[in-house]
Amino acid sequence: MDPFETQYKAITRRHFFAKGALGLGTAALSSLLPRWEALAAAANPAGGLPGVPHYAPKAKRAIYLFMAGAPSQMDLFDYKPATDALFDKDLPDSVRMGQRLTTMTSGQSRFPIAPSKYQFAQHGQNGAWVSELLPYHAKMVDDIAIIKSVHTEAINHDPAITYICTGHQLPGRASLGSWLSYGLGSMNQNLPTFVVMTPTWTGRKEAQALYNRLWGSGFLPSKHAGVALRSAGDPVLFLSNPPGVDSDQRQRMLEHLGKFNRRTFETFGDPDTQTRIDQYEMAFRMQSSVPELTNISGESKATLEMYGPDVEKAGTYAHSCLLARRMIERDVRFVQIFHRGWDQHGNLAGDLPNQCRDVDQPSWALVQDLKARGLLEDTLVIWGGEFGRTIYCQGALTRENYGRDHHPRCFTIWMAGGGIKPGVVYGETDDFSYNIVTDPVHIHDLNATILHCLGIDHRRLSFKFQGLDMRLTGVEPHQPVKGILA
């Protein structure tokens, strides 16, 4: 007998209706679930998850200064004086150990050592080494924790920057800021929870592209995606009323549109409909809050001078840093600034000083400004890129100029503010800034540390998607970097 035919004949009329009733009950129950979610959201108007933060946070907000393209650690923070005597000598195989290379240098016949041409000096109570390219950073080493031993598996820009921003090398995951918005919710009603800026740069013009997935919400609800603040035209797209429409007309239109959307939500219970309602209402409130935010005319002369000569030029890194401080004052949860142009495969001596001038004084000013206003104690600041650079030269090598390829095995970032121990230098690399000698910090450990400072246990912040419990820090064991925690 055919087993399928046997089963079909065995199904009685009573059995059919019993099974069908169960199916209808399941469908009815599933239709109610979004409504439960809506009730939970109504009970917690700030959003966020019940029970989050998991413990008392040291920081309530964060600013991520992302140097897209990968700064050269041995030209900025990771001083390697022993390499000076090894100029143009081949990097020993015992150091490289057959580690994979990018296609840009894998075809080179040799890997000549390129010592940094820049002078270093020790600063602060801990004697941290800082390059002459960062004189303002040198003045704040007692305010920051420098981590020299960060590492990643990604070796090319797009997967590497996607990896550190979303926890995975492939697109489709939620970004760090989106996770914070999802877990902690908003602290204000008139500005987005997560804001992104992409300022201009003066280094190498052929910079890597930035994709909005770096601040996207991935599988999380779309309301948790970052909002890009533009430097020209409307700071946020469609902020201004169209010609012939005044504020009263727009408000009436949004009220009627909200009624239609709420009726749709009551009928179908789709949470994306509620997101759309919230976004329309937020956009209307932003018509007044965003222009006020971006108007820096009320800042004192001393403050403007502290951020440097470019601060009043919209779209510059200095201007973005000042806006970041203004957002923190207005309780924006997470601000991320992507500064491009750090990809020095050649002409490092021509491009790197320009990049450093862009960010050195404004980054220092941001930390000092937050500190002076009592905001640094509960605001976390992070500075760094997606990987490091090689000690060996890519292309032509001279004492005055050289290039460096991608290097995921070690790179340097710094952190400051809420939850971070100031004046710390953590981790060490070998004499070639090629391999980590002590205290390795994976980028998942870095993200776990950021979440920890904001009161989140990274192992307990997850989202069910495609049958998996997704986390920013993946499934392998990682932990916050205890050596830099206050």
Detailed description of the structure:
It is built from twelve helices and 17 strands. Mean pLDDT is 90; it is low at 29-45. The strands form five sheets. Strands 1, 4, 5, 6, 7, 8, 11, 12 and 15 form a nine-stranded mixed beta sheet that branches. A two-stranded antiparallel ribbon has the order 2-3. A two-stranded antiparallel ribbon has the order 9-10. The protein is globular, with a radius of gyration of 26 Å. Helix 10 (317-329) runs parallel beside helix 11 (348-372). The protein folds into two domains: 3-30; 44-245 and 281-484, Alkaline Phosphatase, subunit A, CATH 3.40.720. The chain is α/β, with parallel strands linked by helices.
Topology:
Elements: H1 3-10, H2 13-43, E1 61-67, H3 93-96, E2 120-123, E3 128-131, H4 135-138, E4 144-151, H5 157-166, H6 176-184, E5 194-197, E6 227-228, H7 247-268, H8 271-294, H9 301-307, H10 317-329, E7 334-339, H11 348-372, E8 379-384, E9 388-393, E10 404-407, E11 411-417, E12 424-426, E13 428-429, E14 436-438, E15 441-442, H12 443-453, E16 463-465, E17 468-470
Helix pairs in contact: 7-8, 10-11
